[in-house]
Amino acid sequence: MFSVQSLTKITPHRLVFNRLQSPQGSVQYLLSRQLLLGTPARQKLDTRVRRKSSISTTMKAQLPKGAWDSHVHVVDPDAFPLHSDRPYTPKKASLDDLLSFESRLGVDHVCIVSISVYGNDNALLLQSLRRLKGKGRGVVGIDPETITDQELDDMHDAGVRGVRLNLASRNQTLDQDQFASILNSYAKKLKRLQWAIQLYVPLSNIEAIAKEIPKLALPVVIDHLGHPAETDPPRLQKGYESLMALLRNQQVWVKLSGTYRFPNLPETDAYVKEILRVAPDRVVWASDWPHSGGIAGNPNGDRLAVQEYQEVDDIGFVAQCKEWCGHDEKLIQKIFVDNPRKLWQYDL
Fold first, then answer.
1. 3-class secondary structure, 9
2. H helices of 249-328, where?
3. Chain segment 39-49, per-residue pLDDT in tens
4. Which of 132, 218, 297, 325 could in theory staple to 331 by disulfide, Cβ–Cβ 3.0 to 4.6 A?
5. Which residues of 86-107 are buried (b: 16+ CB within 10 A; e: fewer)?
6. Cα angle at 136 between 143 and 327, to 5 degrees?
7. Is 0.85 surpassed by the pTM of this model?
């Protein structure tokens, strides 16, 4: 029991690490270590949720056996120094903290996504996967122009099943040709392993790549419900129809996650329910733990100052997701268990 964040900039025919961030982070969920790690733990108050979950909410958050959390991060600045050009400085959020957090939710498997503060250094992520002994999966940050096949094979053996391209965190936009070139550079390198390409892009950008995605012949995952802008209901935004068409044709996957990033989005309920209706076999649930504040959370704008994690009611979010599913046990089984097992090649 118990994401890739490297910002890229365009240079002639290659991708180079640059500062990229995506809100994540959170501190210690002090739960049943004994259940997960076989060591006793004292009862402590969880100070990182926005409100205490009632007993009824906790019961609603119970998950089916074999549940997955498909987007989490680990941070250990002491053992694994952060990138010198990092966009922010988060606190430690170790694998032990993650396991305790997932124990509370009733999650059995995780997909660890690399975090921007490590750039393309995946050492901590790979160590964490090895500690999980096959029970987890990973999404890494790479430069497809320089990484070797042997390095990819070693990552695959550890449990890696995808790479991440993050444009949303720095409001980076690409024209259609640039985007297609980048996607194809990843696809060329990853095709033999059939890894997923995970995209964190604004909803408005999806229209530009909608025709390119089916040509990649790889799983493509859209982070955080497509990251819609909070200005209008998603159904009125550019990219909405393209996303729905891709989902309808089973050409992309979507992560049901990160709604705390757009808390004022109009018609959120209708948007999520429509995604679940259109593509029940293409949605995977994720917490986005530990909920960092990203660049916006830098104290006095200082990227080197240690920042606090955001307070998120994760148990409440699980309950909300089950409500969006209409408490349909078959649909809940899909988004928490069956779909992620397929996406992350857990049976292969």
1. strand
2. 268-278, 314-324
3. 333 233 232 33
4. 325
5. bbbbbbbbbbbbbbbbbbbbbb
6. 115
7. no
